[in-house]
Amino acid sequence: MTIQRGRHFLQTPGPTNIPDRILNAMHRPAIDFASPEFHDLAIACFEDIKAVFQTKSDVFIYTASGHGAWEAALVNILSSGDRVLMPETGRFSLVWRNMTETLGIEVIETPNDWRSAIDPADVTRVLSEDKDHKIKAVLVVHTETATGVTSNIPSIRKAIDDAGHPALLVVDAIASLMTVELPMDKCGVDVVIAASQKGLMLPPGLSFTAVSAKALEVSEKNVMPREYWSWKSRLNSEPYRRFCGTAPEHLIFGLREALDMIKEEGMDAVFARHARIAEAVRKAVGVWVSEGPMEFNALVPEQRANSITCIRMPADTYANDIRTVCRDTFNVSLGGGLATLMGKTFRIGHMGDLNEPMIIGALGGIEATLQVLNVPHGKGGVMAAVDYLADTTTR
Ligand SMILES: *Cc1c(COP(=O)(O)O)cnc(C)c1O
């Protein structure tokens, strides 16, 4: 083993960099979960996290991965035998669909090429054909982390309204929250699903469902058996019940710090920083793909995500070699290809606690890797990113 010095660059699309401030906030002893100190801290987090979802509605916090929040959303608003629409986006819509079917819920899926956003016309068509309103919910992945594509939520809301359909709109924002605007109340989203280890800069271990009044009402009548995930038993009670057991205190200490950091920076500034860093990545990748076999996976430039960029390689070997050399030689960890994109793509995560020199460094490690592996590519990607960052800076 070679000894590595300096910082390792974690450019995976989750988990993401945890700021020292958050790590330090977590570095303390456990406390009495029944104490007024923890009670006040937890209640304030439940209140203050609403701003992150841009909602006045309740946010439920689970000690669970994003998969847990997926299941929580499903079992609270749906029962076995119900029917839903889940437009395909990629590997994450696929896994979520499988979970939904496992719960006995019937899924109608509109197909997708794993390179494009959800077509709102598909949503309108399926819902218009559903005359007797058998479809109870439309479940969409906002940013598909496997493909680097972000779908347009307001256009999907409009598609549901155009069909005059009462289905609930449920959005997996796990890879988009805090990286791109998603004002839940303004967009008319009924449930937003998120997790701690992506745009929120926290360790893995927490996930969230933000729930509209309409969805909460549906959940009250829903007969699906549930206990741990149940919104009802978590509502308006002391922290022990809100977490359905011992609270993940240290993650809550971290969450408190993350919410403070987001408030300090300002939501708009956080979105603008993500847009800027993402554009710098796209400038570099644009140069790399200008010669040779590499391509952006996302076909439509406007659909390219602000949180992750997925790059296609035609030869099976390259994508995995790039990840290995980049990680082990140049200290930059990247995401691999998922499901049918395995071996064909690699992914650069750019969400959370990230700034200009960090992304320039990461892009430098990737460009050096392309050179080491003799992957044909346009040269000067890093310089294009630097130029973009410099040209868009006023002083
Ligand atoms: C990461 C991710 C998930 C899964 O989250 P886990 O915490 O790994 O369960 C689900 N959906 C999307 C869009 C993601 O990016």
Describe the structure.
- With 395 residues, this protein is of the alpha/beta class.
- It has two domains: 133 residues, Aspartate Aminotransferase, domain 1, CATH 3.90.1150.10; 245 residues, 3-Layer(aba) Sandwich (Aspartate Aminotransferase, domain 2).
- It contains 16 helices and 15 strands.
- It has a seven-stranded mixed β-sheet, sandwiched between helices. A four-stranded antiparallel β-sheet has the order 11-12-15-14.
- A hairpin with a 4-residue loop joins strand 6 and strand 7.
- Helix 13 runs parallel beside helix 15 and helix 15 runs antiparallel to helix 16.
- The chain is globular.
- The model has no long low-confidence stretch (mean pLDDT 97).
- The protein binds pyridoxal-5'-phosphate.
Short structural description:
This protein has 395 residues and is of the alpha/beta class.
Calculate Rg over CA atoms: 21 Å
Outline the low-pLDDT stretches. none
CATH topology label of the largest domain: Aspartate Aminotransferase, domain 2
Output the strand order for the largest sheet. Answer: 2-10-9-8-5-3-4
- The SS-based structural class is alpha/beta
| Relevant CATH superfamily of the largest domain | Type I PLP-dependent aspartate aminotransferase-like (Major domain)
Classify the beta-strand content into a percent band.
Answer: 5-15%
Using the coordinates above, name the CATH class of the largest domain. Answer: Alpha Beta
Total domains, how many?
A: 2
Topology, number of strands: 15
Bound molecules: pyridoxal-5'-phosphate
Distance between the termini: 45 Å
* Tally of helical runs: 16
Overall morphology: globular
- The residue fraction in helices comes out at 40-55%
What's the CATH architecture of the largest domain? 3-Layer(aba) Sandwich
Describe the sheet with the most strands. 7 strands, mixed
The whole-number mean of residue pLDDT values reads 97
